[in-house]
Each structure stands twice: as C-alpha cells, then as structure tokens.
Amino acid sequence: MASIASNVSSMRATPQETFESLQIVMSDEPTFQKLVDTVFGNMDANKSGTLDSKELTAFMVQVCDDMGVQDPPTPAQVHQVFKHLDLNGDNSVSRDELAVFLRHLFTEQMHQASVQIAKMEKQEKQEKAATSLSGLFKKQEKAATSLSGLFKKKK
Q1: Mean pLDDT, to the nearest integer, of 37-47?
Q2: Which of these, 9, 7, 18, lies nearest to 108 by C-alpha position?
Q3: Is residue 31 part of a domain?
Q4: Pick from 13, 36, 37: which is nearest to 26 by CA?
Q5: Which ranges of the sequence are coiled-coil (predicted)?
Q6: Residue 98 class from Cβ within 10 Å (0-12 exposed, 13-18 middle, 19+ buried)?
Q7: Which residue range forms the structural domain that includes residue 34?
Q8: What's the domain count of the chain?
Q9: Alpha-carbon distance 49 to 97, whole Å?
C-alpha cells in the first residue's frame, strides 16, 4: 500500500493552506471525484471494487503509522468506522459511500480551518492593538517627562 500520510508528519499545512486546498477540491466536482478515485484505489488492495474491514484496517494502521501515532486502531475502533462508512449495511464500502464520507470530512476540515484562521486573525489584531497602545504609552511617557522637565526649569 502506498504511504498515504507520509508528507503529513514531515510538513504541516497552515490553516489557510488547508482551507484553500480543500476549497479547490470541494468547488470542482471533477477534482473531488479524481481524489475519491485515488483514495479508494489506494484502499482497495484486492481491487474488488469495494472495501472490506481488512482493507480498512490496513489503511487505518498505515495512516496512523505514517503520522507517528503510537497505538494502531483497535478492532472495535475499525468496526465502528466501518459501520459509519457502510451506509447501506452490505458489509462492504463502495466508492460512493467513501465519497459521502470524504465530502463530509473535507467540509468539516474546511470549517475547522476557518475557525483557526479567525482565531489567528483575532490574535494578530490584539497583538497589533497592544503594540500600538504600548507605543502610545511610550509617547505619553516622553511627553510627561518633557513637561516635567519644563516645570523643573521654571522653578
């Protein structure tokens, strides 16, 4: 199986990069479908056209390993994920069922990235305001020192 997340552990995308990349994928249906085909092709080890629990287990273990996750998913965790992916209950996951999951996942990731971007922008504004206030206080302090010096000279 190809290493799916090998680049994830070595370089993390910024929230802005994540949002922009997912926006491209989600706004262009042919691009989204090509991505689904690629992910499904990587997961469908026996090329049967559907995914079974063994293929899902192998994929999840590989992704966890690539990302440096110490403990692989338990059989119960894999079973739970499989149940959520298998929308029609036929004990296999079709390409279309995987597409439904990926669309939901990417939408949620876009939302999370936009929340992170908003938090970062708010923090930047607060830091700029604090820097501006600090500069203002320094100017006021200099003015007060100058005025104090003037009053001392007049005495």
Answers
A1: 95
A2: 18
A3: yes
A4: 36
A5: none
A6: buried
A7: 6-154
A8: 1
A9: 12
